[in-house]
Amino acid sequence: MGSKERSSAKMRVLDRDVAFYSQKEEDYISLTDIARYKNQERTDDLVRNWLRNRNTLEFLGIWEHLNNPNFNPVEFDGIKMQAGLNSFTLTPKQWIESTGAIGLISKAGRYGGTYAHKDIAFEFASWISVEFKLYLIKEFQRLKEEERKTLGWDIRRNLTKINYRIHTDAIQTHLIPAELSTKQTSLVYASEADVLNLALFGLTAAQWRDANSDKKGNMRDYADIAQLVCLSNLENLNALFISEGLSQKERLERLNKIAIHQMTILMGDARMMLSGGAE
Questions:
Q1: Residue 216 and residue 214: Cα distance in Å, rounded?
Q2: What is the dihedral of CA 206, 212, 215, 217, to 10 degrees?
Q3: Which CB contacts under 8 angstroms, 24+ apart, belong to 85-88?
Q4: How many other CB atoms are there within 10 angstroms of residue 252's CB atom?
Q5: What is the pLDDT of residues 120-151, one digit of tens each?
Q6: CA 29, CA 14: separation in Å to the nearest integer?
Q7: How many percent of the chain have pLDDT more than 70?
Q8: 3-class SS at 78?
Q9: Phi and psi at residue 167, to the nearest 5°
Q10: pLDDT for the residue numbered 191
């Protein structure tokens, strides 16, 4: 499926494993695994029988029209005209090849089978079992929420690492003479870190530790998302101010004003999101 496809994962639904994967930021779920809930031995037959249904074809046709600019409507009309005839048969592969459909994917190999875009997979699950569909949606949403949280944390963590490197490189280049010892150098880094701490949190690292002796880590470990975003911005700006030769006092004053402005905006956006975007 190309480099944009993630490796297949599984979710557990009513004691059944259901495979799914993402391709080009779209999620595809195994119809073969969903069909096993009804009949483990005749999964292919169940998928084909579902495809023979006129209502199914109309749903698939509308979905492709909405999502696939390369969908072949002429071939689709020919297939739809045959729906309902006793002699009419249709496999996922035939549907894909004749219409250029992207909503269904037929995968070969050990972990193959028929996969469908989540919109279509949920429709198929309704045909198999309404109960199974509801549990499938619930479990899928739970996994995607966990994925979103993990991705958000990784982005925040990596963004902080990248900006930290930019910040420390600026300190190394402009503030630390080569003859300083390692111990002396660490004092400069700590001092510059406290420029950011004071600008954003109003405390040095030592002051925070004295006030929070019962907590592990440092104040940044307890920062919220808005504060971490602002901190990343301040690290970049402080690196720029250092390269421009501004004194530590001047930088602290500027960064504090910027932190106040950015946090006002970020907290306002957060409140709007919580209220549903309504003023």
A1: 7
A2: -20
A3: 88/52
A4: 18
A5: 999 999 999 999 999 999 999 888 877 766 65
A6: 16
A7: 76
A8: helix
A9: -65, -50
A10: 82
Consecutive H or E run containing 23: strand 16-23
Question: Is the Cα torsion angle 163, 165, 168, 173 positive or negative in sign?
Answer: negative
Instruction: Give the pair of three-digit tokens for residue 95.
Output: 């549907």
Instruction: Tell me which residue has tokens 């496999």.
Output: 91
DSSP string covering 198-248 = HHHHSS-HHHHHHHTTTS-S-GGGG--HHHHHHHHHHHHHHHHHHHTT--H
pTM: 0.53
Tokens of 185: 């150098």
Q: Which two tokens stand for residue 119?
A: 């919109």
> Among the residues of 68-181, which ranges form H helices?
73-82, 92-99, 118-128, 130-174
Q: What are phi and psi of 12, to 5 degrees?
A: -105, 120
Q: 64: burial class by Cβ within 10 Å (0-12, 13-18, 19+)? A: buried
Q: How far apart are CA 76 and CA 250, in angstroms?
A: 69
Sequence ranges of the domains in the chain: 9-128, 149-274
Question: How far, in Å, CA of 242 to CA of 195, rounded?
Answer: 12
Q: With bands split at pLDDT 50, 70 and 90, how would you rate the model's confidence at 278?
A: very low
Q: Is the four-CA dihedral 88, 93, 97, 101 of positive or negative sign?
A: positive
**Those residues with Cβ within 8 angstroms of residue 209's Cβ, 6 or more apart along the chain or in another chain:** 218
Beta bridge partners of 23: 26
Q: In this structure, how many other beta carbons lie within 10 angstroms of the beta carbon of residue 203?
A: 16
Distance CA 30, CA 87 (A): 27
List the structure tokens of 36. 């096993």
